Amino acid sequence: MAEVTLTAPDISCEHCVSAIKKAVAAVPGVRAVDGDPETKQVRVVYDEAQASLDAIERAMAEEGYPVSGRA
After folding, report:
1. Alpha-carbon distance 9 to 67, whole Å?
2. For 35-56, how does the pLDDT look when each residue is reduced to its tens digit (9 = 90+)?
């Protein structure tokens, strides 16, 4: 398992976090997603054998929350 914390500056509320959780959880291999609108960060736990960081970031961008960096 791998864990990454991503920064997405467009996160502004719990609705944003909910949308991101739904989109990222749909990526095969993602085990957990948690977000914080105050820090604008999303923590993702995923199986590297099934999910790629690119796929996770792409899912966030397609939902309207592009990643600007990794914490």
Report:
1. 8
2. 999 999 999 999 999 999 999 9
